[in-house]
Each structure stands twice: as structure tokens, then as C-alpha cells.
Amino acid sequence: MERKIKYISLYLTVFLFTILSILGCQGERKPVRPSPIDISNYQFIEKLNLSFRASVSDFRVEIENDNYLFKPQSTNNIILNGTPLELKQFYFMHPSAHTLNEKVYDGEIHLVHQSENGRLYNIAILIDREARNSTIHNFFHSANEPNIKNQLTQLDVYKTILPSDRSYYQYFGSLTIPPYNEPVYWMVMKHPIGITESQLYKLINLIPRYTRKTQDRQGRKITYVYQ
Known about the structure:
Elements: H1 2-25, E1 38-39, E2 44-47, E3 50-53, E4 57-64, E5 67-72, E6 77-80, E7 83-93, E8 99-100, E9 103-104, E10 107-114, E11 120-128, H2 137-143, E12 152-155, H3 157-161, E13 168-173, E14 184-189, E15 193-194, H4 197-206, E16 223-226
Parallel strand pairs: 1-8, 2-16, 11-14, 11-15
Antiparallel strand pairs: 3-6, 4-5, 4-12, 5-7, 6-7, 7-10, 8-9, 10-11, 13-14, 13-16
């Protein structure tokens, strides 16, 4: 009798654990390696092995959850260590999601790439009013239009948005916006791009303020990849 009670108790425990696990999965999943993080104290150094394949392309503006997403209408690729990665979209946020040595920047751009097997590779470019390598006039000219949604904007995205020095910090994390999918291979550019006061004002009025705090690094390694 006691043995039967123990088995019944064990089965009930397993059953309840299974039900709770299923119910937990229906909520927002917390990533194991969350982003964004503060970039500091990198452990490794590597030589840059990254190339860009792009030309002037049309980008259609779509709005999802109050975010303005710029989606290419033709193929734009980067080649990372021999692996082609296709640009799916880019978007802006303010202030920056990532920080460098705990410094918060005026904004951040995310270039979202995907490999053939579906893995995500994101390039993050910080925006700073104090930086002098200003590049993004074309975007802000388009952003000033009254009916930006579904419009086409012509842009050579890598030449226009990326800083001239392509050195970056690499780590593994998650998306910085819901549903916080992971893993994401992050490339956070070392050098920010410049922005004027008027451009920053347009950016602030165009998109909602980003509020997710930097996450615990949890012992993750950061690699400095230099050009």
C-alpha cells in the first residue's frame, strides 16, 4: 500500500511539473543570454574577416509595434568568415541599447542579418552627437516626410550607415526587443557615427524611447575584432 502511494505521489509530481512547464512556455520566455549588455573588458582579439556586398537599394518602410523597420527590396549581403548573411531589415532606437564602458549613447541602429540556416547576426552601430564621422543624412531626409510608411528610400546601407573603421566587439546574446529570440551573434561597432541636433530631434520624434536596461553579462566573453 505504501509503495502504491509513493508511485501515485511520484506520478502526480511529474504530471504537475509537466503542466507547469507547458503553462510557463506560453508566457514570455526569458533568454539565457540576454541582450543588450555593457561592452567592457574584452578577453580576445581577432583580425577582421568581414566583407560587404551592397549597392544603392530600395528600402520599404514598415511600422511594427511603433518601430520603423527599413526592409530591403533587393539582396544586401555581408560575408563573415566565408558565410554569406542576408540583410533582412534595419531599425533605429534611442537612447542606445548597448553601452560602452557604461556610457549611454544618443541612439543605436541595428542591421539584422540572417544566415541560410536561419541564425541571426546583428550589427549594432552607436549614434553620438559628439562623433564626427556623420553619414546618415539620406535616412533623416526620408524620415522627415509626412507619409513615411510604405515609402521607398534609396540607400547604400553599408556605405551610408557604417563607420569607416569597421572594428567591432563580438558576443553572443539575444534580440533586444520582444520576443528576445536567441542566440544572436552580435557585432557592436567600436566607433559611433555622428548625428546633428536636428537629426536627433527627428529620431526622438519618430520612434518610441527604448527602455530595456542592460542585462547581466553572466560571464560571457567579448571578442574585439579589429580592422
